[in-house]
Structure formats: C-alpha cells, structure tokens
Amino acid sequence: MPGSKGYRSDRLRRRRRSRVERSQAWLLYISAGVVAFLAVLAAWYLADRFFGETPPPEKAGYLAAVQLTVPDEDAPVAGLLVVQDAAGGDPGVYLLPPDLLLEGPNGEYVFAADAMALGDLAVDLGRVVRAPIDAVFTMPVSDLGRWAGSDVLQIDLDPPAGVSADGGAPLVGDDGTVATADLPRVFAFLGDDREETVRLQTAVVQAALETAALRPRDERPASAGASPSPGGDPAFSEVVAGITSGRATVEPFPAVVRVAEGQSAFVPLAEEIQARITRRAPSYRAAVTVQVFNGSGRLGVGRAVVERLASLDVNLPEPLNADSFSYAQTEILAGPETLPVARDIRAILGRGVVLDGPGLPKGTVQVIVGDDFDAQQSSTKDQP
Length: 384
What we know:
The structure is a single chain. Helices cover 36% and strands 20% of the residues. By secondary structure, it is of the alpha/beta class. The protein has a five-stranded mixed beta sheet, with helices on both faces. It has a five-stranded mixed beta sheet with strand order 13-12-16-14-15, with helices on one face. α2 packs across α3 (121-129). It starts with a helix and ends in a 15-residue tail after the last strand.
C-alpha cells in the first residue's frame, strides 16, 4: 500500500508539472506573437513617417481678393474676387471696378478704389458679399501677360470694343486682340461708358487666364511666382493655380451702373451676389434649409427650382425625387417659424400652395414640385 501511494503522488506531481509547462509554453507563444505584431506596427509607423508621402489635404474653399496695380498710380486701379467653393468646383473670378460701391463700417458707401487705397478692401467687400474675405493680394496687372506667356491676347467680345485711351491707339485691334504691353493702359482707362470698359477688362482677364491654362503643366507653377503680399490662407500660388487651371469663369462683379449728380457708380445687386458668391463661400450657413423634391417626374425640374431659389438666404441641398410623381400642383410645406420663407418661395416660383408641414424640423421647408411648374427640359437628372 505505501508503494502504491508513492506511485500516485509521483504521477500527480508529473501531471501538475506538465500542466504548468504547457501553460508557460502557451504564454510564451502568445507573448512572442504580440511582440512580433508590435514590432511590425512600429516598423510600419516609422517607415511611413520618414519615407511615406504626406496625404493630400482636404479640399477647402476660400474667397480671395487680388488688387491690380499699374505704374504711376499710388493705389490699385481694379481688383479680382476669386471664389472657390469647398466642394472643389470651378473657380469664379469677378472683376471689381474702382467705382464699385462697397459698405463702410457705419453702413456708408465706400468706393472700391478708396477701400483698396486704405487697405480696407477685405472688410468693406466682405460686408457686401456677407462672407469673410480670407486673403487679399496685390500684383501688377502686367503679371496677367506674364502668366499668359504671350505678346497678345485674343479677347472674346462681340463686337470687339475698339475704345481708345486718352486719344491714343485703340486698346483693341481690329482683329480683336489686346497687346499684353497695353494691359496697364487697359486697366487705368475709365472711359465714358463704364459698363463697356468693365466688359473689356473682364474679357482681357478671361483671355489671360485661358491662355495661361494652355501652357504646359510644368510651366504653370513658375508663372505664379512668389506671393506679392504677405501670405495668408490660401497662399497666392494656390489662388493662381486655381484660376489658371482652365476651369475658371470670369465675370463682372454683380452690379448695375447708377448715375447721381453727374457721377456714375456700380451699385451691387444683392440677390445676384447671394446666388453667385455668398452661397459658395465656405463659411456660408443659413438659418433655414429648403429641400426641393421632384414630384412631377420630369427631368431637371428639381434643379431648375433650386436655381430659381438661389437668391434666397437659405441652405439648398441637392434636389431629390418625391415619393410619387403624381403631384399636379406644387406644394410648399412650411416647418415651424418658416412661413415668411415659404411665402417668398411662392412669390419667386409664381405658383404652388403654401401648407403647414406637420412634423418638419424647425427651420425646414419642403418644396414638392408638381406638374404646374413650367421649366424647360434639361439633361440634369435629380438624385434618387
């Protein structure tokens, strides 16, 4: 019996020792795996940090002003407002004439020429477009010709504006070209017909940017040069790269000429500014959101309504399709505290019935476009 007892004790000890050894082995295997994983992770991190490429930054929009100078003038003679939306759409470039009326700190009118001379263009223009101007740059107008890399610019005017400065040679040749050497004369020239002059200057800027876009890609960055004024966000090179990409649209700043006491001035058009500039500013946020639904099934009607409503100070998401295409009449559903906006929509569309929108969130209006809305057929298709 004692021998049998000793045998059982030895066997139990061996079994316990075997379990301990197996546990230790598994622990070593797991530890080795964790250490190997951490080593690989650390190596990947260090390699990415030292040798990997920096990820491209997220697209960000901006509003930037570029002041244009000419020799023998103490202050800029014109400007450009560059509008780049946050979605990376086509840049918009708007010519700022010197006699454009901006808004001073007390609501008074201020000429753009005076604002540029005093260094107040960003704040005075920002009040007009109701959005902050992110950066202001200053450059000689002759740089437009340098960007283009050409002695002449072919402008697109119908018919070409054959105006002359100070009784000298015509600014535009019979073949519709402007010499880049004459760019200072073009922009220093005011002329009796201010709208015609601004139209000419706008065409010259467009021709310069389009010609610059045709240059080889490796030459375009060199055409930007260094920032001619203190850097900001965005950088001047980024602005130049955007407007010389071949996608920019150049237009006069939305304004109309008014004459008072023998003096003419460009008076800003608030609704057009809202639709074409303010809405595209990265900082734009409205208190009311208007969601348009296509309730007729016709292609493009949702997009057409969104474009009609662009002058309103409201958020306008992409149009959607309604739950049905059988709406005979346009319905404008007003959420809490949005009845005035719903009535404005009714006035702009010239049709539809304004109804209470039960269950709609505060600050929301829904427009369900019916068969009564008459819009031209378009290839644009509303989102499903």
